[in-house]
Design a protein that fits this description.
Layout: H1 3-8, E1 17-23, E2 35-42, H2 45-58, E3 62-64, E4 71-73, E5 78-85, E6 92-95, E7 98-102, H3 107-117, E8 119-120, H4 132-138, E9 141-142, E10 145-146, E11 151-157, E12 163-167, E13 185-192, E14 194-195, H5 198-215, E15 221-225, H6 235-241, E16 248-249, E17 252-254, E18 261-264, H7 270-288, E19 297-299
Parallel strand pairs: 2-5, 3-5, 4-19
Antiparallel strand pairs: 1-2, 6-7, 7-13, 8-14, 9-10, 11-12, 11-13, 15-18, 16-17, 17-18
The protein binds flavin-adenine dinucleotide (FAD).
Flavin-adenine dinucleotide binds at residues 29, 63-71, 85, 103, 127-131, 133-135, 137-138, 140-142, 185-186, 218, 222-224, 297.
Length: 302
Amino acid sequence: MNWKDALLKIDFQQNTRLRFGEPLAKHTHFGIGGETTAYVEVNTIDDLATLTHFHREWKVPVAIIGKGSNLLVSDKGFNGISIRLIGELANLDIEGNIVIVGAGQSLPRLSKMMSKTGLSGVEFALGIPGSVGGALIMNAGAWGSSFGDVVTDVTVMRDTGELIKLTHDEAQFEYRHSGLEAYFCVISATLKLQPGDVDAITTHMNTLFKQKIETQPFVEENAGCMFKNPPGDSAGRLIDISGLKGHRIGGAEVSTVHGNFILNLDNATANDVLDLVAYIQKHVQEKTGIFLQTEVKRLGFD
Ligand SMILES: Cc1cc2nc3c(=O)[nH]c(=O)nc-3n(C[C@H](O)[C@H](O)[C@H](O)COP(=O)(O)OP(=O)(O)OC[C@H]3O[C@@H](n4cnc5c(N)ncnc54)[C@H](O)[C@@H]3O)c2cc1C
């Protein structure tokens, strides 16, 4: 029996959905990428634990996909199982100013819910179109705030199916990075937010969102900032002074609004994007002496 037949035999709980040959372009904000062999929307912790055992038994590669807003998938796709967290894994529980949120929950939705509840700390997140899991892995942030700042602990699953709770320090949050990638899957986080006035929090959230859509491209397909900001500088500024805004390779173009965004303007391939990334890195280094590190994660490349 091959692993696809074996996967079909698993008796998943209700609402966990399995499909084969799913185009990952549909599940990324870039709108780029080939098919994943199998795609599972996992509804429960038990089903996720079952998949850890399957992954080890059949030695099948597994990728956890959040909202795909920081992901470039290769044109040939991903030869393995792509997992997305839904249902029980996207729960939201609020007790006073303590919030337990599942990794599958949407970050903008969390931001809106917290403003309506009168809890401050995630106003910056309305304009970040990821999941809570992706925001924990990336320590997503904006306007001087990062998601890790409000996190007190994180629950992760090992590839044995075992759940463990990590403290804030054990999660090792850094600029657009955390130590959570070492685990099979991020399950949930506990947040400690500050009680405040609903109107003031909502106004603050909306102001930050407005500033974002005025200064960054929001309509065209992209994966957010392509490069990390080097210490004390901004990747967008370096790309701008290197004269690269508007530079195009195939269907991929450096945004004319913000140089750190690469847009999929005309059926760009993943190779177009990577060629443009390499072009930017080369020219920025020649012009400024700084080598830009990429922020966007890759899936399905050798
Ligand atoms: C228009 C736009 C604006 C953006 N603005 C910002 C911004 O202001 N600040 C910022 O920081 N980012 C920004 N981003 C990037 C992106 O939204 C964030 O990095 C976000 O946190 C990614 O979350 P995601 O769920 O989409 O992760 P994905 O892109 O799906 O995945 C990113 C990585 O996290 C892993 N992952 C996701 N969920 C889990 C999980 N539960 N367990 C284990 N691994 C997991 C994936 O395997 C992958 O390696 C922007 C993106 C877009 C498209």
